[in-house]
Amino acid sequence: MRAPFGEFDVVSPAPEALDLLVPPVAEAVRGWHGPVPADDLIHVDTDPRWADTATFLEHYGPGLLDRSANCVVVAGRRGGETTLAACLVLSGTRVDVNGVVRRQLGARKASFAPMDTATGETGMEHGGITPIGLPVAWPLLVDAAVADLPYVLVGSGSRRGKLIVPGKVFAGLPNAVVLEGLGVAADG
């Protein structure tokens, strides 16, 4: 099997790579009810040393930047309540936490969640958090540019491996909201 893009040595449908996925992601793939068959979720086995975006692109090719997305966990606070949410934006952009995220969550203040909170609440590893398998009650904010791509490279839940998923899948995940301008220029 070949990936829809990129040069990866080991490529398989995600249902055939369950042993390489963390439990919440494996469970989501096992019980998949998305807009495409589970076999359309592609797992590519990659070296965990290159899981972070910059080193991943260095090793696997900078041409993947426009086809990859980062999933980050944010915390919105209002009064004494904190809402955790995930944001999915193209890798070449940053999440507009203080604008779009804060307004969407109805929060007085929003920030990136601490790493221990993000990993502890998701059951995923830092550098591998993915929208597939997130806690179902969480809002999932998806930048429209991600949802519009034919295929998107995202984390697999662990630092080892990535998933390549049709962009439209993210709009159909539980509590997903597609937003224009969620991802803003990294230098802006």
TrEMBL record:
InterPro entries: YbaK/aa-tRNA-synt-asso_dom_sf, YbaK/aa-tRNA-synth-assoc-dom. Residues 65-166 form the YbaK/aminoacyl-tRNA synthetase-associated domain. It comes from the Bacteria. Coiled coil: none annotated. Gene3D superfamilies: YbaK/aminoacyl-tRNA synthetase-associated domain. Signal peptide: none annotated. This is YbaK/EbsC family protein. It comes from Streptomyces atriruber.
